[in-house]
Predict the structure.
Amino acid sequence: MTGWIFLLAAALGGYGLLAGLEWSRWPGPAWLGIGFRASLGAGLGIGLTSCAFVLLLWAGLPVRWCAGIASLVIAMTGARVWRRRGNAELKSGAPKQAEHPQPWLWLFRTAGVVAVALIVAGWAVATRASPHGDWDAFSIWNLRAKFLASGQPAWRYAVSPEIGGGQLGAAHPDYPLLLSATVAEVWALNGRLDPEAPAALALLFALLTLGVLVGALTWFRQETLGWLAALLLASSELFGSQVAAQYADIPLAFYMLASVCMLVAASREHWGAAPLMFAGALAALSAWTKNEGIVFLLLVLAWTAVRDGGRALLRLLAGAAPVLLVVGIFKLVVAPFTVGLFPATASEALAKLSDPARWMTIARAYARTFWEISPWWAHPVLLLALWAWGAGLADRQQRKEGWVLVLPAAMLAADFLVYLLTVADLRWHLDTSCNRLWLQVWPASLLGLFLIVGPWPAATPAAVQRSASGTERSAGRGRVRR
């Protein structure tokens, strides 16, 4: 229990750090704003705590001290930011954006709650059947967490090339440590290696992803679109089947989605400092989650430089700098060099790139994985097409925010290039990872797609007036009866 209390403190610290954003103009209900901010803040606080934990371990401190100090530092930092900025925000009295009544909103909220309940139920059943998660959880993420939780000096086995015998894909001692370090923190403070900790964290990141998706679309468009996007994500086999796997792909999807969300917020604020710094921190945390996140971070940096130049890029780097320091130390000093995925010679690489059979095999795997996201009659593309046909598209200015789709598309293109060059057996590589690569970009893709389509029709002023008049008449009849 101690580990969860400290992790909660870190999550609250992340919530406090977000006080630097403009929340007084939140357009939706207050409870949904708190949930959105809590989802973002929890991911931010947990990620930053894992960075501090690994740094302290590397410095030689006892493992329980590392876990406790890391959580308390983030919690106190967040509390300090909240006192300085959050109180000023509450006192500012800035007006909220106008809220437009959305018919049948209660139905979308109810469906969202049911979808979350089904995700939790599916997670519970799968975890009961396989409490240690799927193969990669047992052989990579949780195995390394056990070594980290062992403290000095055994934690270094988590980054030893001997952990996987130096074989390609065996245990990946060079993988970033956000997920393994977070599990290790909970285990170290609880004093036992219980399988419930990684399982609970897997569910937590799935729920945080849904929370950010609903909140982001409520912030940028309307609440109805947020619930609809969350329903498409929660009902997809691609997402639901991986919640209990205890892999790092859903945490990586969360940080990608959160970073893209902050980039949209920054563009609305004319590339203001606060959202850009948070976008940088969250993109850097994706690099601290998995190697694919390093590619995503580079894409975010490049796209920011192209869209708004050096000043915005510097703000993004300022937010990313603390996490980048940890990632750099880990990759350059701590992590071992393992057998690479890529050819050793240029001629071998050119031979793979010029092989049309490899291109066709990868393209078919991409198409098959995308098709299998959901059954055809409930496929997100079909449902989005029907929605766009009925509600139309967003106005021209709003559609410009759909540029964020470039980031997940570029990630898929980078993954395609990796498949072309991999020295591993191509069919094995595709069968074991292609669906998870789509999972990583799927929440951010849904956000971008729903930024393009039109909103759910709001109630007309006349309808709102009739509803209000009916309520007043009902209240009047109630007073007469009394």
